[in-house]
Amino acid sequence: MPRKEDAALNQPPFGPLAPLAPAASAGAEGLETISVLGPIARSSVVDAVAERIRGEILAGRLVAGSRLPSERELALALGINRLSLRAALARLEALGLVVTKHGAGTVVASWRERAGLDALAALAGAMNPTEPAWHALLASILEVRRVLAAEAVALAAERHTADDLATLEAVAAEQNANLGDPIALARGDILFQRAIVRAARNVGLELILNTFARFPDEHPALVGALYDDPVRTVSAYPLIIALVKSGKSDEARILVRQALAAADASLLERQQRKAGIGPTKPEAKSEGAAPAAAPRAKKRGKK
């Protein structure tokens, strides 16, 4: 049965839209694409251009299969030189968002098939937190984080050293000073996660963590949502350290998954309430439980 999150992601701007016809020259189709982009400021040109085009692609306004105008036309529309444009397009190609072929121009790629984990946060950054699709993406980010955290703690329980434990305890102690600053708290939490991953002795997990490590600088609004309960974040550290110390990897994996699942469900509920999106699942369950309790109370009364 399809989930609500999947349904939300299949609606515009994520659902299939009619692709733009390939623009061989500055025809009507090319001009339509150019009008979507508009001029851009000159500060941090390559970053700004890449961010602008990435936002249009991830939001569905530049759809998979549509061909971008020529370099000359794009550079003119954006008010930049062609060298800066090429650098921006190369960055987008590295992210799996466009494909550039000599003699064929630049075509928007299907980001679901080519983009990496970075696209999750970029998608969230391109949307408004009042949109249901934003909450679907937040749920996806939490699920990914939950899987990685559980496995990292389990491996750390098997492979840690005394130095690893000392590092974890030091980072956890420093986090108490960051309770009032979500960005500082997030940076400290990344340090704690990195210490866990290094204790796990898995370079792949550490490279994946680098994606989340960029959140504080690149997606501060998303960080505010992920770390909206700083006390809960800090209070979890002693429990995680104890699981690592225990050396019981299977137990650690299960307990971390369970604890994070409950915490993430609560986080999503708070964010939905804040956005005014409607009732959450926990509320529906509690309302449905009341009628079942009433008949039992009546039976006791008859006795």
Q: What is the topology?
A:
Blueprint: H1 4-9, H2 28-37, H3 45-58, H4 71-78, H5 82-94, E1 98-101, E2 105-108, H6 111-114, H7 118-125, H8 132-159, H9 162-174, H10 182-200, H11 203-213, H12 215-218, H13 220-226, H14 230-246, H15 249-275, H16 281-302
Antiparallel strand pairs: 1-2
Helix pairs in contact: 2-4, 3-5, 4-5, 7-8, 8-10, 8-14, 8-15, 9-10, 9-14, 10-11, 14-15
The CATH class of the largest domain, by name, is Mainly Alpha
CATH superfamily grouping of the largest domain:
GntR ligand-binding domain-like
**Any idea what the shape is?**
elongated
Ranges where pLDDT stays below 50 over 5 or more residues in a row are 2-27, 279-303
User: What gyration radius follows from the Cα positions, in whole Å?
Assistant: 24 Å
Instruction: State the strand order across the main sheet.
Output: 1-2
> Remind me, CATH topology of the largest domain?
Four Helix Bundle (Hemerythrin (Met), subunit A)
Q: How many domains make up the 3D coordinates? A: 2
Name the helicity range: 55-70%
Tally of helical runs = 16
Overall pLDDT level: 82
Main sheet overview: 2 strands, antiparallel
Hey, roughly how much beta strand do the residues contain? under 5%
Sketch the topology as an H/E string, one letter per element. HHHHHEEHHHHHHHHHHH
Report the CATH architecture of the largest domain.
Answer: Up-down Bundle
Number of strands: 2
- Distance linking N and C termini: 44 Å
What structural class do helix, strand and pairing data support? mainly alpha
